[in-house]
Automatic annotation (TrEMBL), chain A:
It is a multi-pass membrane protein. It comes from Actinoplanes philippinensis. Residues 36-168 form the Methylamine utilisation protein MauE domain. This is Methylamine utilisation protein MauE. GO terms for cellular component: membrane.
Automatic annotation (TrEMBL), chain B:
GO terms for molecular function: isomerase activity; oxidoreductase activity. This is Protein-disulfide isomerase. Keywords: Disulfide bond, Isomerase, Membrane, Oxidoreductase, Redox-active center, Signal, Transmembrane, Transmembrane helix. The lineage of its organism: Bacteria, Bacillati, Actinomycetota, Actinomycetes, Micromonosporales. Belongs to the thioredoxin family. DsbA subfamily. The keyword Transmembrane applies. The keyword Isomerase applies. It holds the Pfam family Thioredoxin_4. Residues 77-235 form the Thioredoxin-like fold domain. It comes from the Bacteria. The chain crosses the membrane at residues 27-50.
Amino acid sequence: MLRITMAGNLSGTDSDYPKVTMETSRQTRMTVAWPWIGTAARLGLAAVWLIAGALKVGDLAASARAVNAYQVMSYDTAKVVGAVQPFLEIALGLLLLIGLSTRLTAVISALLLAVFVAGIASAWARGLRIDCGCFSSGGELGRGESTAYGVDIARDLAFLALSGLLVWRPRTRFSLDGVLLGEK
Amino acid sequence: MSKGKDRAAKARQIVADQRAAERRRTVTLWTSVAVVLVLFVAGIVGYTVMSGKDEGKLVTPSVAVDEGTAFAVGSGPVVVDVYEDFMCPACGNFETTSGPTLKNLAGAGKVTVRFHPVAILDRFSNGTEYSTRAAAASAAAAQEGKFTEFHDVLYANRPEENSDGLSNAKIIELAASVGLTSDTFVTAVNEGTYQPWATKVTETFSDRHYTGTPTVVVAGQKLDNPTTEALTAAVTKAAG
């Protein structure tokens, strides 16, 4: 977006219209770049949720076991969480893909990711030997397989950064938000 | 005078800004409502799919032990719980390397082995849910007094992950090769009589916070690495 500022009559012309003044070129470049960076972040985060959800939705029983493996809730609760989670992830992914209420979906993404990071950290702290179940139906960790909590948390923090970026700068290209607001 | 025009332009700009702000507020409100609704509906869909899953009538094999979730082999004082999935490669290895030892210990009256046929690998059989079908079939075999024979022949013919698994016809054929030919068995396999039971065994396994197969528990202590040596040592220790 170009910033439109009131130039007033400084130039001495008699125009009715405010003048468009270019800010310093570096700022302008960033102004132009931000929506594109945001678009990449939005589509990237959408892909993350869609893939994460799709990999779990086919086997809800396994998803429930993956949640239960964290040992933070009863099996019956884990069953519900395990069933609801993949559908939520897919819905979030679709909402981000079309760019509807990007700031809100980014906030919800950030909250979910924060919960995931907390869960993984807690499993790590308690010395559990589980697969995080982030991009799979997880749970089962084979013999000789080692845990990857550090990598899992780092990855989730990277996704969290994408969400944060979108909370900060929710205006992106090719979004329904843009269409509804009459932006190009 | 350009001052008047300037003020008019300013006023127009302010009105335009206000209109734009108003539009932003409206759009933000309704898109937020839409997002919340979509996520709510998605959650409901997940919950409905889960609770709507027809798990059928639970038929617990009368010969099952440990709250009806396992089959006992031997009657020794030390209890060894073995949780296995009929498709799991690591379980196949465990059966090959430690299976004979386990049977010898049971035969010598040292241990009671409780086999828990869990089904955690259903997603690796191209939708045929081999893990559940095999676990259910093993219950039908146990009911006919042939659990060990059937269990062994299934592991001897263990299908690879991401294959279709063994068909029901193949399962019945293998059962026949170990002398399991009763109509009751064949019907139970074809109708999936014990499939809800297999699900229950799996849920019990998860409820006990076990996550992988094979899980081997000797006298209540889970073996971190179920090798034959670790198994023998744990049994000796538990026997005192």
